[in-house]
């Protein structure tokens, strides 16, 4: 048996290794109906649910990993997240139809911090809510915030690679601020984590009528999801399951490597420009 490649081990996060599509969605609009809002926070098997929705035929289910496919999405997410985090303003359907107009389902951050706006914007969409054991989620969340506040990413590559990783990090820090009420530090975030988790589930449950929501239990397979969504369960296909902690760890490693390559490329361009400038001055003088 051949050894798994880096791409194999990254699973859906392998998009980190691919060039960005560079699609400017500022003038885009909705092309497919929004049908499913999976509103559980990050670290609740969002990657598995995203993959399951894709298998069931939903077009382009959105996940934070989708941003790596098209980093220009950050140009829409960043102002929307700043409006919510810094000014407590709500975001309207027009914004969602731009950045999510090609998607018939959403999962994960940054979408889930706009849970209330998305529910109002798409009243016809069905809601899926996956809840994980609180203590397990808190432990997993520590791993997520470990990567979010990695000093190398936040204080170096964020600025040496402003047009790719810089935008992604800003998006990550802003959604963290909205969900946890702070993005000051990992310690501050984890201090708020338990209450943020409870507040999120409480808010969704209070807003959504019971007939519109599926409380999905991890490990329950296709049946409850397919019954709720009125879709045929795929024959011979296991419900997706990714080791999200391990996959995310690999993803942060790949992220750092790509950012380093961008940094070296930028340094190379600056170095060549400096040499040309130096040679030109020498020649002219």
UniProtKB/TrEMBL annotation:
The chain crosses the membrane at residues 263-281. The keyword Transmembrane applies. The keyword Transmembrane applies. Signal peptide: none annotated. It comes from the Eukaryota. PANTHER family: P-LOOP CONTAINING NUCLEOSIDE TRIPHOSPHATE HYDROLASE PROTEIN, P-LOOP CONTAINING NUCLEOTIDE TRIPHOSPHATE HYDROLASE. It comes from Pseudocercospora musae. Keywords: Membrane, Transmembrane, Transmembrane helix. InterPro entries: P-loop_NTPase, Sulfotransfer_4. This is NAD dependent epimerase/dehydratase.
């Amino acid at each position: 048996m051949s050894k798994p490649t880096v791409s194999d081990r990254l699973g859906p996060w392998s998009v980190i290794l691919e060039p960005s599509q560079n699609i400017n969605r500022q003038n885009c609009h909705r092309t497919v109906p929004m049908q499913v809002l999976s509103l559980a926070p990050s670290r609740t098997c969002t990657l598995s649910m995203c993959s399951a929705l894709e298998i069931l035929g939903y077009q382009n289910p959105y996940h934070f990993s989708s941003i790596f496919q098209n980093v220009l999405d950050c140009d829409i997410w960043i102002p929307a997240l700043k409006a919510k985090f810094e000014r407590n303003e709500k975001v309207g359907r027009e914004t969602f139809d731009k950045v999510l107009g090609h998607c018939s389902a959403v999962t994960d951050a940054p979408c889930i911090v706009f849970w209330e706006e998305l529910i109002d914007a798409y009243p016809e969409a069905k809601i899926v809510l996956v809840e994980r054991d609180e203590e397990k989620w808190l432990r997993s969340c520590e791993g997520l915030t470990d990567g979010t506040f990695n000093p190398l990413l936040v204080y170096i590559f964020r600025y040496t690679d402003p047009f790719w990783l810089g935008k992604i990090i800003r998006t990550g820090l802003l959604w963290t601020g909205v969900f946890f009420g702070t993005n000051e530090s990992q310690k501050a975030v984890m201090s708020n984590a338990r209450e943020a988790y409870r507040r999120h589930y409480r808010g969704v449950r209070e807003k959504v009528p019971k007939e519109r929501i599926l409380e999905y239990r991890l490990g329950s397979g296709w049946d409850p999801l397919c019954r709720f969504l009125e879709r045929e369960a795929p024959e011979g296909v296991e419900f997706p399951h990714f080791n999200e902690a391990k996959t995310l760890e690999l993803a942060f490693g790949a992220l750092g490597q790509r950012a380093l390559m961008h940094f070296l490329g930028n340094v190379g361009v600056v170095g060549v420009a400096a040499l040309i400038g130096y040679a030109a001055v020498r020649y002219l003088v």
